[in-house]
Design brief:
By secondary structure, the protein is an all-alpha fold. It has helices spanning 3-24, 36-50, 55-81. The longest helix has 27 residues, at 55-81.
C-alpha cells in the first residue's frame, strides 16, 4: 500500500467516525442535525478524498470543505453570542 493510499484510508475512517458521532450522539436528549453549510462542507471533503488521485483537484475540494466548515463554526458561534 502506497503512503498516499494510507493517508486516504485514515482520512476516510476518521470521517466515518465523525459522521457516526454527529448522527448518533445526542446532546441533552435532542438529536442535532447538520446545517446545510456543514453538510456541504462534509460533501466537499469526501469529494476531495474520492478525487485524491488528481492532487490539485483533491486538495482543492478538501480545502473548500474545510473553509466552509470554518465559516459554519463562526456563524454558529456568533449566533450563540447574540
Amino acid at each position: 500500500m502506497e503512503a498516499s493510499q494510507s493517508y486516504i484510508a485514515v482520512a476516510v475512517v476518521a470521517l466515518a467516525i465523525i459522521a457516526l458521532l454527529v448522527f448518533v450522539v445526542k446532546r441533552n436528549g435532542q438529536q442535532r442535525k447538520l446545517s446545510r453549510l456543514a453538510a456541504l462542507a462534509f460533501a466537499f471533503v469526501l469529494a476531495g478524498i474520492l478525487f485524491g488521485e488528481d492532487r490539485p483537484v483533491g486538495y482543492g475540494l478538501m480545502g473548500i470543505g474545510v473553509l466552509l466548515a470554518v465559516v459554519d463554526i463562526i456563524k454558529k458561534a456568533r449566533r450563540q453570542e447574540a
